[in-house]
Model the fold of this input.
Amino acid sequence: MPFEEKIEIEDLSQLLRNGRIVGRANFVFTPELAAEIGVVHGSMFDVNESIVFGRDYHNDSRMLKRGYSSGFMSTGTNLLNLSDCTLPLLQFTIRRFGASGGIYFSGGHLYSEDVGIRLLDAQGIEISPSEIQKFINLYNGYPKNIRRIEPNSIGRLTAIPQTEDIYIKSLQQFIDKDSIKKQDLKIVVDCSYGPTGRITPLLLNEIGVETIALNTHYRQRDYPVPNIRTIRNTADIVKASNSHLGVCFDVDGSRSIYIDENGLELSFEDLFMLFVTYDETIQGSKGSPIICTPAISSVVKDFIKENGFPVKKVENYPGELSRQIKQERACFAASDTLKFYFPEFAPFADGNFTLIKLLKIMTEQKDLLSTLTRGFPKGIKVNKTIPSTPEMISNFHNRLREIAEEHGYTFHDIINELKIIKEDVFTNVKVALYRDAILLSAESDDIKKAREMINEIANVLKDGK
Done:
């Protein structure tokens, strides 16, 4: 695409997608736009206040982060630079250093061809939709709503080394390393060419877990990761190496897919019920609410209530579960996008902390995940399998997202699947792990509606081939 085709942005709302500012680098989200966003963001803080900023490994994120930093510093506000890092590390650092907020640049998973920014408050929580709108209004009033500062008062850019070491040591405080070492656990970790490659293998080594680490290096993205190819590879290595667990991290490190010792994906529902059943902190908080998203399976909601916890359903807007955790003093929260929140550590989702929790449960129960999750209740679902081809499978996730948007479906990204939501019918669409096929599973209190929806989506997918 030639440079002259770049799109001019008059209203920042044009880039608002699922509560975040997202755009294609250099053609929509330009370095100039990043600098202007930095000026607007910096003007929202007092002179000499500091925020933490970071990014994923990719060159487009690096470019936009540097454009942003020049605009931010021009307002007399300071930046604590994490360079490339995971989102949970940045959120941890905000709280650790008492910063006034943060910003993170990442391609994410579902929109891997774009770059998005996440604006965070002093608790490390993504800002609310009303705050995002305030930010957009300030930008749309540019330049009258911004602050410029004298040259001798320009903000500082400060590196903060050893932050990863502090973060890793903090995670270790929540487990008994000696007990874990006695279990001789072995796991396979796919770091998805992201900054988890610098953290997770070191963390696991520190706690005595044998680790096979994959994709720890940088590679320019040309498709979403993890994807069916990398997930299949991880599952195959788990089986071939007789490992106890496989983990495929999202590129920003906030969530993961988990694979049991048989090479099978663990569902979100089973993971949710596993934590509610076996996590000591949650079990010791009976009566405290558990936060979940509205599209969660009714089986899981009933399971939570039967275990003595009130359930509060919260829309899955950026930062909303985190805010509700604090407001409701909840003991646990989870969204069906594979994010799990443990308030004892932080009010945000952290893939490494979730992994630590799983290892702790396996150690305490002295059992494998397939056994621990085997007896959990299953919902009544309508299922359908659609044969596919390797060519379609290789780009299925992007194409599925395009199809969902074209048909106006509400959907949630669950890494290897999309949950499509239409009224009270929830339909999961995913790629089969061990064959070239698309798996559809619809759940509703009305089985007839579930059947109708699964047939509708099957026809849409066939038309979209």
